[in-house]
Amino acid sequence: MNDNKNNDIVTKNRTYVFLIVTFIFLLMLIFRMAYLQLFNTKASVATLNKLSVKTVYGQTMPRGRIYDRNYNVIVDNIGTNMITYKRESGVKTSEEIKIAYDLASKLKVDYGKLTDNQLRSFWVINNKEESEKRITKEEKELYERRKIKASELEKLKLKRVTKEELEAYDEVDKEAAYIYYLMNNGYYYDEKTIKEDATDEEYAYVAQNQDKLKGVSIATSWKRYYPYGDTLRQILGNVSNSEQGLPDELKASYLKKGYALNDRVGISYLELEYEDELNGEKDKYEIRNGKKTLISKGTRGNDIVLSIDINLQQELERIIEEELISAKKEANTEYYDHTSVIITDPNTGEILAMAAKQITTAQDGSYKISDYTTNILTGSDTPGSIVKGASMLVGYSTGNLQIGDVLYDKCIKFKNTPRKCSWKESLGALNDIKALQLSSNSYQFQLALKVAGVNYYYDMPIKIDSAALNTYRNVFKSLGLGVKSGIDLPNETEGYKGKQSNAGLLLNYAIGQYDTYSVLQLASYVNTMINEGDRLKLNLVKEIREATDDDSLGNVKSNYKKTVLNTSTIDKLYFQRVKEGFKAVMEGSLGRGYMGDVPRPAGKTGTSESFYDADGNGVVETETYSKSFIGYAPYDNPAMSIVAISPHVSHKNGKTTYTSNVNKRIVSRICNKFFEIYQ
Question: What residues have CB less than 8 Å from 308, skipping those under 6 apart?
């Protein structure tokens, strides 16, 4: 009895506590609501506005211009007609399909990018009832029981569109399907581009029929214009169009920067590298209660000024093209297909001109020349004797070679291996200058063996570790060989580094017959020799200038400053000695005339043995010869440096030993042209 009474008391107490807590909570809620309504109205309105206001952006603004070093415009923008679509409130899917067909009948739209899935989706939208019938009762039950998602049902509908049903679509159907896709791709509030660069007739049709083409508008857009045609075209890079928008491989990085999916962006080389500067600021709008208001006016992108001299660039490309065709008419040039050349200012690291051209022969014997300039960044070649200056520095810096040391040029022979010789059986007694002038292989072989600590004798058995090869590579890297040049372009290669190490490969390395290097690295190397150990960054952009509203040049936002990537620890005295050797090369039979009539040239010629896949079976089996050259002028105060590589100029051929001098012709002509322009 007492227990029941106690339980009743406990229950009543709990009820009272609950009622009191509830009352206090309601009282607090009332006070809070009163405060918000009476004392914090401003904050409440701000919160409401924040929820009901949206910020959107207009079309991508024109990009900045690109100039050459003399402020000639080499990339500009020109206006184009554009047809766009933005879905109006209340427009039905059936109406959009009708608009798509209407536009397809009047506009020429390239539907080549229309995917199979997009075409299937268009069929499903046009045949809703039939598509629904193709979903089984069991599948609908699974959906109702939430065992499968709505998206999975849609995939089933797409999958069940037959091949015959798709084949029934003609060109107009496919154009309409692609237009419909463009109308609905992206966010609903975005203005979608249906066609860029529309014809005057297409533009006029839309303008005259906007009452029945709900949401379809006309606008003015822009596209890139190249006053110098294809000159330097690959390096300038490309920009995506509105249909393409952000490319898949760059989408994530661009979205992080705040770009929209349909924005036009740089997708290769300079346009990509300098996207942040070249890209314009879009018009900014505020959408409040369905009304769109301009907040800030957009501007075009900043301009960039290149170190390139467009006149020199044009001459370089013309000379290479002419000499390619001329060389292909010579004997023993079956496998020769391209030459790469770069000209730089060795005092700053600025690139003045760079070009590579590739030639192919058609079945009728005609020639086709194509731009191959990106190979200067992405390709690499066996350099040959042009690296012998670097090999000399290895000898000097390790104490294995002294200035003026004389070695007798002779063939080198290890046990069970063929002899390794210079370009003739013996060149006699040579000091270090003469060894460079006559391009002695034997001198380099003997020096490499000293670096490896080998006391050489004829036909000796030999085994060395990788230490000597690493010594060579470390010196070469400090000069720019085997490391990136730092150029302000994407996709630069580091070249190929051989994996094995033995005596024969060490000797090959010393004469430029093992690792491969890009043309950029070779340019970096010759400039480091000129600057006696200072390795300069190579650069293409000289200035960035602020955008203007007219065609005038804006204020300089930033400019390129000479950048030293590293400084070699090798004594400058040894660099000076190698440069004496380079001067001697151009005074001797191997180099005389290689740089035309330029004043006081210095440089190094090279021939390398390489291999070529002659029959296209994926195996490089045909031994060929490649020609290379590095040089600068005048040697006492260089105004320019040059690198030229012509792979597979000739090959081992029982019928003839002829080797084209196309590399020399190209170098001599462009060097003469340089000093004609810059005298």
Answer: 68, 69, 74, 232, 351, 352, 353, 354, 540
How far is C-alpha 417 from the geometric centre of its chain's CA atoms? 44
**Strand ranges (E), 168-275:** 192-196, 216-225
What's the pTM value of the predicted model, to 2 decimals? Answer: 0.84
DSSP secondary structure of 274-295: THHHHSPBPPEEEEETTEEEEE
Q: Give residue 631's pLDDT.
A: 98
- In terms of DSSP bridges, do strands 66-67 and 303-306 run parallel, antiparallel, or are they unpaired? parallel
Token pair listed for 361? 């022969």
Q: In this structure, are residues 168 and 177 in contact, taking their beta carbons and an 8 Å threshold?
A: no
Q: Is 385 a catalytic residue?
A: yes
Structure-model confidence comparison of residues 611 and 224, the more confident one: 224
Long-range contacts of 609-617 (CB under 8 A, 24+ apart): 609/382, 609/513, 610/381, 610/382, 610/647, 610/648, 612/335, 612/648, 612/651, 614/334, 614/335
pLDDT at residue 50 in the model: 56
∠ CA 261-265-266 to the nearest 5 degrees? Answer: 145
How far from 643 is each of 377, 579, 650, CA to CA, in Å?
13, 16, 20
Side chain identity at 312, as an amino acid letter? L
Q: Please state, in angstroms and rounded to a whole number, the distance separating the CA atoms of residues 652 and 622.
A: 8
pLDDT at 1 over 60: no
Q: What percent of the chain has pLDDT over 70?
A: 94
Q: State which H helix or E strand residue 558 sits in.
A: strand 556-559
Rounded to a whole number of angstroms, the distance between the first and last alpha carbons of the chain is 122
Catalytic-role residue among 121, 242, 268, 385: 385
> What pLDDT, on the 0 to 100 scale, is given for residue 30?
76
Q: State pLDDT tens for residues 488-517.
A: 999 999 999 998 989 999 999 999 999 999
